[in-house]
Amino acid sequence: MLWEAILLGVIIGWLIKGRVKNLNNIELPGWPLIITAIVLQTIILADFHFFQGYLEPYSPYLYMLSFLLLLVFIIMQKLQTGIILIGIGILLNLVVITANQGKMPVDTSRLPDNVAAELAAGTMSPFHTVSDEKTNLSLLGDWIPVWYKDNRLLSIGDILLALGVIIYIPDNMQKKYMPKH
Questions:
Q1: Residue 142's pLDDT is what?
Q2: Cross-strand pairs, 129
């Protein structure tokens, strides 16, 4: 959903006469935190899919740490509507993941049977778990269907994060920046 939000944000920015080159002028203090979070999640995925799950006992903690790093990054930014929504989305996802032992609960009743079975077997994702009666804060988990993709569900946090990106990009495409000397 993040890529779709970025694309939609750019399209909206163009439609309101914003300039993509203005995005080059955005100052993002703490940007290495984003890279570190992405690297952590990539390591977890690579270990899950290509190695023998050596990191499995630590994966939930590393996953939560990646969200914490993203939240610290957001706190370091200038307050804008888009940034605030992104931060709330990340926080909601971190809360539900933390409440469920480092995994995002998924309502498998809204997924195709084969996808639900893979998720239940634990062979689909190191980041997700099946939502059941023992799930904490299931309302914050992945349960909202994506209309154009059968095997994709979103959380409220995902939607707020995407909405924040959709607002942030056009807003910054319209900003007039002073040339740097």
A1: 96
A2: 105
